[in-house]
Amino acid sequence: MNATDIMKQDVISVSANTPLKEVAKLMVDHKISGIPVVEGDRLLGIVTENDLLVRAKKLDLPTFLPFIGGVIYLEGPDRLEKELRKITAVEAGEIMTTKVHAISPDTSLEDIATIMVERKINRLPVLEGERLIGLITRSDVVRAVASELE
Length: 150
Fold this sequence. Notes:
Blueprint: H1 3-6, H2 20-29, E1 34-39, E2 42-48, H3 49-54, E3 64-67, E4 70-73, H4 78-87, H5 92-95, H6 109-118, E5 123-128, E6 131-137, H7 138-149
Antiparallel strand pairs: 1-2, 3-4, 5-6
Helix pairs in contact: 6-7
């Protein structure tokens, strides 16, 4: 069994300029935990529940040490900048996760399950080149495993 056997081809997706209110409503209405962001049929990223949760969480300011009238940050400003961008985002493209693990249509069920478990991923876009052709969630994998056990 491979990705084409278990993927959903009817993928609900949004564009980068889709308002977050609409993205959240689609996720709630369709009972999905992540939604691909596309330009045409090219995958740009994914907005996940976790991305939306960042908007509601307490801002975690970087740790610093006062030093001779100035400050020394104990971590780089990148994390704070990324968190601020997500907190103030109003469109899907501003909050989406861009480092997306994707698979090809011929990826085996075993490889799909391995990627999901080892990388703690809940969904995998299926790409043909750069074109989004499907999406596989953990529940799709569980259904496939269950059907093999019958």
